Amino acid sequence: MIRLGVNIDHLATLRQARYRVPIPGVVPEPDPVPAALLCLSAGAHSITVHLREDRRHIQDDDVLRLGRECREKLNLEMAATPAMLDFALRLRPAEVCFVPENRAEVTTEGGLDAVAKINSLRPMIQKLHQANILVSLFLDPDPRQIDAAAALQAPVVELHTGSFADASPTERPTHFAKLKSAAEQAHHLKIQVNAGHGLRLSNLSDLLSLPHLHTLNIGHSLVAHAINVGLEQSVRDFLQAITKK
Ligand code: PXP
């Protein structure tokens, strides 16, 4: 069975759109922590958050509370920096996924360059191993990157599905072929294969034949879909609230 990891960053995006500056006496909403627990109780297998350097969505306090509530299901995405390594070693989530980070990007645009960063990643990965934290590398489906993951003894890779997800139906098979070859290479090297980015209900089925797939991490579209399927109830609740008794 393919496992589902839910990235809840965009619940925090919605909160930060209004509560970047706290309003005295008002509890900021939506709170991503109970929402994460709701995802788990609905059957999601893990929760992913990306604590970005610019703190544009998820905040330190959210991650610390998630650590208390669901540490064993928590996947922390982070840049490979000393500050984030310290944070992860104090938090001790089940899993850390190293991702590239660029302040100007809207979302994570490409995979981590594990080949170029092999020397700086190695000691960080060792420290996470020693703390019993599963390490994942978010990589483009490029054979050199998968080889670097093996050289770094990373137990997991997350293949970047963005190019596949956004490709036209005619281009999609080419991108799928790259993902398939990367998944086979990783599996051959005894590396667990996760995948994610840009996945939607409309493109998921084309990905399900990817071999050796362990976990799919899905964020934006799942949260957007929740707004669509949950909006009617929200309107009903507000109508009820404004109806004079
Ligand atoms: N996996 C990784 C490593 C990511 O950086 C992201 C986006 O933050 C996702 C999965 C989820 O992507 P999306 O929000 O497009 O589903």
Question: How would you describe the overall organization of this protein?
Answer:
By secondary structure, this protein is of the alpha/beta class. 46% of the residues lie in helices and 17% in strands. The chain is built from ten helices and eight strands. It has helices at 9-19, 32-41, 60-70, 82-91, 118-130, 143-151, 162-166, 172-188, 201-204, 220-242; strands at 3-7, 46-50, 74-78, 95-98, 134-139, 156-160, 192-196, 213-218. Strands 1-2-3-4-5-6-7-8 form an eight-stranded parallel β-barrel, surrounded by seven helices. The structure holds pyridoxine-5'-phosphate. Pyridoxine-5'-phosphate is lined by residues 7, 9, 50, 77, 97, 99, 107-108, 138, 158, 196-199, 217-221. Pyridoxine-5'-phosphate binds next to strand 8 and helix 10.
